[in-house]
Write a structure and sequence with these properties.
globular, Rossmann fold, alpha/beta, 11 strands, six-stranded mixed β-sheet, 305 residues, five-stranded mixed β-sheet
Amino acid sequence: MNNPRIVSLLPSATEIVCALGFADALVARSHECDFPAGVDKLPIASTSKFHPTGTSIQIHNNVTEILRNALSVYHIDEEVLRRVEPTHIITQTQCEVCAVSAKDVEDAVCRVLATRPQIVALEPNSLTDVLRDFQRVADALGTPERGRELIAQTTGRLWNIAERSKFLPRPRVATIEWIEPLMAAGNWVPTLIEMAGGINLHGKADEHSPWMKFEELVASRPEVIVVMPCGFDMQRAASELPVLTRQAGWRDLPAVREQQVYVTDGHQFFNRPGPRLAESLEILAEILHPQEFQFGHEGKGWQRL
């Protein structure tokens, strides 16, 4: 397409757009879009209605209260939309807490824009969906061949690891996507665990991340625990972990006894259904099979607790 003007309202979409070669076509972003370098200089078109500070339980309660009152978690800056005059707006329908909803975008467009930009609403519930979204964005921008190239490149990286891990020992892995209340990782993460050479214990592939009880974690006796809270970097995730480590039964877990508890940068990697899921798989492979895989992510994407 000639001279597209793209507004991306979620970080993973921004990464998809840039991986497809359209970084220069971005004219606005969400407040969370921070990769690749340089996108933080773009105007901000959407912000959260609350500051995600405090503990995980406080954040959970704030979001729950907003949703209980039938309100959106995000605010769209209609003046920015009017000023940048987008031809394309990319958002999502997968999660009310992850980014601006497609309905909110449609309402804002009708109020402030004389033209009608194409709204691309992504819904990545599975790893396959993520790859399909690469193609959907590429098709919307009139470059289907770029979508096919990005899918081939990403799939090649994923399957290289899956093939190498196929015959390695398979530890039992528990993933934690939120600390209080406790949530296991679902959607694409169970698939990545299996591809990295592990046995996923909680959360089902292609389904939303489930809430769980601490007793369920204890009963499953994981050999490895990977912590990847949505929106948290490693330091912040580690600061929240005493909520779990102080509970009776934590020290008896095989993963804890064998020092196989890991904190990852969920905000930059696992929680973003974009091209960097390839790096997320590399992180898991390094954690589960360090003698076989060394990609250099330790200390940057993950660390041992």
